[in-house]
Design a protein that fits this description.
The chain has about 290 residues and is of the alpha+beta class. It has one domain. The protein is about 20% helix and about 35% strand. The protein contains 4 helices and 14 strands. It has helices at about 25-45, 55-70, 75-90, 120-130; strands at about 110, 130-135, 140-145, 155-165, 170-175, 185-190, 195-205, 210-220, 225-230, 240-245, 250-255, 260-270, 275-285, 290. The strands form 3 sheets. A 5-stranded mixed β-sheet has the order 1-2-3-4-5. Strands 6, 7, 8, 9 and 10 form a 5-stranded antiparallel β-sheet that branches. It is globular and about 50 Å long.
Length: about 290
């Protein structure tokens, strides 16, 4: 697998969001170390390309099971290292962009969260599974999982997979900046556009304080690779929507109307939580751009 250009990451967020979260230093360090370790392994030359990708999926499935069973044990470090090695082998396989694990690999969750609205369900899904989201046209995939750091401080590892103009499979770390919000990705949908290949992506995260957050992003796949579509966002900033964990923002994408809707809860500075009051926000996608109605 050839080393490819880094995916453009955006560090700004839209003013449509009502509160900003400061990531714990330990979460930033944990995510950075894990991502760098796997990416360094991926960037190395291939020696003995495995021929059976099914075996590699089984290895990762087993490693995830062991990771869950040993997240608080004395063997944690060695088990987690074994998981990283299994992931590296899988992502180095030349067919990774084309294949999915079969149902026997029950620690993979493939496009199983597209209609999920409850944050608690999403949180546990990333903790217990390797979550794979893919676009309708199979051009884009994201692998996401919780780093299982313990406690309420959740951090996530994400890898995005796509084919370049030469049909070569690219595997890149996604959200590696210290300013990126901690989320796992669970939804990808290709947008209707006459000229561009645009993809709508939803992410979810939670890291303490009884709160949760979602991000809405639009990515563009073109001849140069994959990039953030800055011009697609209001104020050219990624959308981030916060709420208490007990609240449901009801984030939806209407494929027929090409619109994104959600509940935007008001943040109460005095109590440090979101109130019960909310605004129902509707964003129409016109010529690939999110426009508030």
């Amino acid at each position: 697998m050839q080393k490819s250009q880094q995916l453009l990451l955006v560090q700004q967020y839209s003013s449509i969001n009502t509160v900003e979260y400061k990531q714990p230093l330990v979460a930033i360090i944990l995510r950075t170390v894990i991502t760098i370790l796997i990416f360094v392994l991926l960037s190395g030359s291939l020696s003995a390309q495995p021929s059976d990708i099914d075996t590699l999926y089984k290895n990762v499935n087993k490693a995830q099971k062991e990771r869950l069973e040993n997240k608080f044990s004395e063997s944690r470090d060695s088990i987690f290292t074994k998981f990283d090695a299994a992931i590296k082998d899988l992502f180095n396989h030349q067919e990774i962009c084309n294949e999915f694990p079969d149902r026997a690999n029950n620690y993979f969750l493939i496009n199983g969260l597209s209609n999920e609205k409850q944050g608690k369900t999403l949180a546990y899904a990333f903790m217990n599974n390797i979550v794979i989201s893919s676009s309708d046209d199979a051009m884009l995939k994201i692998y996401s999982w919780d780093n299982l750091g313990g406690g309420t401080q959740h951090s996530y590892t994400n890898y995005i997979l796509f084919k370049d103009k030469n049909e070569s499979c690219k595997v890149l770390p996604f959200d590696t900046s210290e300013n990126s919000d901690e989320v796992g990705y669970y939804y990808i949908k290709k947008l209707n556009h006459p000229k561009k290949n645009l993809y709508l992506v939803f992410g979810y995260g939670t890291y303490g304080g009884g709160k949760q957050h979602y991000v809405v992003r639009i990515l563009e796949l073109n001849e140069s690779g994959l990039a953030e579509c800055l011009e697609c966002y209001p104020e050219q900033k990624i959308l981030k929507i916060g709420s208490n964990r007990s609240q449901n923002i009801d984030l939806n994408f209407d494929t027929h109307k090409q619109s994104v809707s959600f509940k935007q809860f008001r943040f109460d500075d005095e109590v440090g939580f979101f109130s019960k009051d909310y605004e129902h926000v509707l964003l129409k996608i016109i010529n690939g751009k999110l426009i508030k109605e």
